[in-house]
Design brief:
five-stranded parallel β-sheet, Rossmann fold, alpha/beta
């Protein structure tokens, strides 16, 4: 990780989840920015510098995967999932194309590591992402 504070956009409709993730990221020197849905997140990326996006897989309105697609691989994305999400979102190569990392909700304590890994993977995939965009 670099010496600058990274801005992590957290996207979830559950305020409790947002607060818990924000606290966890702050403890590791990351700067959380909160959005309560995908539309709010899309507005934020237009006006603020964002380095990483962490989004719930399932939310009212656009899903986390739909948000990732709308961002067109411009950011590393960590998709937070729970067991029920597999009934709604197909976990296949589509996820790999749009999300840098998938983290089960029960492993949320690993979120800072997932953010770092997502950035590494996004940087590695950057030439490919430009080709498919």
């Amino acid at each position: 990780m670099n010496d600058n504070k990274w801005n992590v956009l957290l996207v979830d409709h559950d305020l409790g989840n947002l607060e818990m993730m924000a606290k966890l990221l702050k403890s590791q020197g990351l700067e959380p920015i909160i959005a309560d849905d995908a539309e709010h997140a899309l507005d934020i990326v237009k006006t603020q510098t964002i380095n990483i996006i962490v989004t719930a897989a399932i939310m009212p309105g656009k899903t986390g995967l739909e948000l990732s697609r709308a961002l067109e691989a411009k950011y590393p994305v960590v998709l937070i999932t729970c067991n029920e999400d597999t009934k709604v979102i197909p976990f296949d190569s589509t996820i790999r194309a749009w999300c840098s990392c998938v983290l089960p909700k029960e492993d949320i304590s690993r979120l800072p590591d997932a953010c770092f890994k997502a950035v590494e993977r996004h940087e590695w995939d950057a030439p490919l992402n430009k080709m498919i965009s």
